[in-house]
Design a protein that fits this description.
Layout (H helix, E strand, L loop, with lengths): L2 H14 L4 H8 L3 H9 L6 H10 L15 H10 L6 H10 L5 H14 L6 H4 L2
Length: 128
């Protein structure tokens, strides 16, 4: 959930409880203008302010941190780095033989091969 979605959820909960910005501000010990600025996006609330906001609405704010899964292109880049120099030509020929890889995907794959080609590989030759 992104920041704006959290704020939208706070607004929904506030309104569902029949509260206005003044009520929430009073519960948080802030000015109504401060709540207004946060709700409209003119100011961003810090994590401790978001937690206090949730408390003021009788809610619990949970923040979870998850490791990102490796992106497919990261796995591919790692695999390309590990290709022995003598096999780079094979990879180039494989790339050229894959008819379903055209346009942007093919250019991205070629760029990855060029970026991670081992030393001593004729990069200009691969780029053809």
């Amino acid at each position: 959930m992104d920041y704006r979605s959290i704020i939208e959820r706070f607004i929904q909960i506030r309104e569902s409880q029949g509260l206005d910005q003044k009520d929430v501000a009073r519960r948080m010990g802030l000015s109504t203008g401060s709540i207004s600025h946060k709700e409209t996006g003119r100011r961003q609330a810090a994590l401790d302010e978001l937690t206090a906001w949730a408390d003021a609405l009788g809610c619990e704010l949970r923040v979870e941190l998850h490791e990102q899964r490796p992106r497919p292109q990261d796995k591919l880049a790692e695999a390309i780095r590990e290709i022995p120099t003598e096999d780079v030509e094979f990879v180039r020929l494989l790339l050229l033989a894959l008819p379903e890889l055209e346009g942007a995907p093919r250019r991205r794959l070629k760029a990855l091969i060029l970026a991670y080609a081992p030393e001593g590989v004729d990069v200009d030759r691969l780029a053809r």
